[in-house]
């Protein structure tokens, strides 16, 4: 893990902490590091000195105002704005007089003529003329090296074989390749992935639909589902939509990366999450749901594993699953007036009292004995034409506040008997 933090205005410790926390949650554990570029300044300055001694780097004293004026003239003449090489040393060229009290930037002496060529693992062969590239600033006036230089030194020192990044970096790549060559090193393999778009088809950004990775954790997404979805955005393995982390590691290669921009679809992410949630072991899922409930001040017990097993098929996130689980731990339950009016009729109230008496008298409190008690009550009211839905829906409304739940006997068995009796008798 490498933290590229030479842009001091944007690289706060808080921003770094979010990156590390997000990677940790996703299970994308680093084998080495984290390495911070700001802690490697001595190494960068050593390489800068070597390049300068070899004639690949030179000081440039052009002020920001002069550079802005140059760009304005070029744009007015409908030329591409670029540094014009005023301070670039050439045989027989006389350089301007060095201004007093000005700290220069250091510029890389980009080759003149010829092409920079690489075989991109996503975009195929890319050729860029050196004449399109001006001399890049690789150290600021205070001596701090810039991104494009630092990453080359890092890639060499860290023996990086593949650089997989967004295609907004394509313009940086020929500059970096030229620095590699100036240092006598071969560049790594590059793969430039298309930008992910938001649901409106625009580039995602903090202001445009993107969230911190950790927010998805807080919203109840599973890390394996997130990895599955993100992987599938820019890569495919046939028609496989749902796969485990182990399958992904086995299947992945650079040959099936997508060439067109993918669109981030939160509804699809929720669907992927639901599939992983259904497949997850109940006890492992209960740990995550317990964390959600802990934030709400709800203490849980061993029943949570069974609750997760019963409700996970109808939930897309652990937050929704926690909403269901919370109903089993509260002292009271909210019943919507419309549900009360529809299901708690005068006809059903005596039957609910009858069921409460049956449940109170049970020798054991488990799914089988509760199911038998419900059948007895239905049988006793058969002459009135009472069917299971007519009994089950009012019971669900009273004990959990909703007419729709999984199997009634399973739901009741996961609630304390006394709590069920109190709620039924409040009908």
TrEMBL record:
Q: Which portions of the chain have biased composition (kind: Basic and acidic residues)?
A: 80-91
Disordered: annotated segments = 80-99
Q: Where in the cell is it found?
A: Cytoplasm
- Which Pfam families would you find in this protein's record? Anticodon_2, tRNA-synt_1c
Q: Name one GO biological process term.
A: glutamyl-tRNA aminoacylation
Task: List the InterPro entries.
Answer: aa-tRNA-synth_I_cd-bd (IPR045462), aa-tRNA-synth_I_codon-bd_sub2 (IPR020751), aa_tRNA-synth_I_cd-bd_sf (IPR008925), Glu-tRNA-ligase_bac/mito (IPR004527), Glu/Gln-tRNA-synth_Ib_cat-dom (IPR020058), GluQ/Sye (IPR049940), Rossmann-like_a/b/a_fold (IPR014729)
The question of whether Nucleotide-binding is a record keyword is answered with yes
Q: Which family does it belong to?
A: Belongs to the class-I aminoacyl-tRNA synthetase family. Glutamate--tRNA ligase type 1 subfamily.
Q: Mind telling me what this protein is named?
A: GlutamylGlutaminyl-tRNA synthetase
Native organism = Hylemonella gracilis ATCC 19624
The gene name reads gltX
């Amino acid at each position: 893990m490498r933290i590229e933090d030479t842009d001091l205005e944007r690289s706060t410790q808080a921003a770094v902490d979010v990156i590390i926390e997000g990677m940790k949650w996703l299970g994308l554990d680093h084998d080495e590091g984290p390495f911070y570029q700001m802690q490697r300044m001595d190494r960068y300055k050593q390489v800068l000195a070597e390049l300068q001694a070899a004639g690949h780097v030179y000081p440039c004293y052009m002020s920001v105002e002069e550079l802005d004026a140059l760009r304005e003239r070029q744009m007015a003449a409908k030329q591409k704005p670029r540094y014009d090489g005023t301070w670039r040393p050439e045989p027989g060229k006389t350089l301007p007089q060095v201004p007093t009290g000005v700290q220069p930037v250091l510029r890389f002496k980009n080759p003149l003529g010829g092409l920079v060529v690489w075989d991109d693992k996503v975009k195929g062969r890319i050729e860029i003329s050196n004449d399109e590239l001006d001399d890049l600033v690789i150290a600021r006036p205070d001596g701090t090296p810039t991104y494009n230089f630092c990453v080359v030194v890092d890639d060499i020192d860290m023996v990086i074989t593949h650089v997989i990044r967004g295609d907004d970096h394509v313009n940086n790549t020929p500059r970096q390749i030229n620095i590699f060559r100036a240092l006598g090193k071969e560049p790594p393999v590059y793969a430039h992935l298309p930008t992910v778009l938001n649901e409106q088809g625009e580039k995602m950004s903090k202001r445009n639909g993107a969230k911190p990775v950790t927010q998805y954790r807080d919203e109840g997404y599973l890390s394996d589902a997130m990895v599955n979805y993100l992987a599938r955005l820019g890569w495919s393995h046939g028609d496989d939509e749902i796969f485990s982390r182990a399958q992904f590691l086995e299947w992945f290669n650079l040959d099936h990366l997508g060439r067109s921009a993918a669109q981030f679809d939160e509804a699809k992410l929720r669907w992927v999450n639901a599939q992983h949630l259904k497949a997850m072991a109940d006890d492992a899922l209960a740990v995550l749901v317990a964390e959600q409930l802990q934030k709400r001040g709800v203490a849980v017990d061993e029943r949570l594993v069974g609750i997760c097993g019963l409700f996970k098929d109808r939930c897309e996130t652990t937050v929704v699953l926690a909403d269901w689980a919370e109903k089993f731990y509260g002292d009271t339950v909210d019943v919507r007036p419309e549900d009360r009016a529809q299901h708690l009729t005068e006809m059903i109230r005596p039957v609910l009292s009858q069921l409460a008496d049956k449940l109170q008298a049970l020798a054991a409190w488990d799914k089988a004995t509760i199911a038998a008690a419900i059948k007895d009550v239905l049988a006793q009211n058969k002459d009135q034409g009472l069917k299971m839905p007519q009994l089950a829906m009012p019971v669900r409304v009273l004990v959990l506040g909703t007419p729709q739940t999984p199997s009634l006997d399973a739901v009741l068995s996961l609630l304390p008997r006394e709590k069920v009796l109190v709620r039924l008798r409040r009908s």
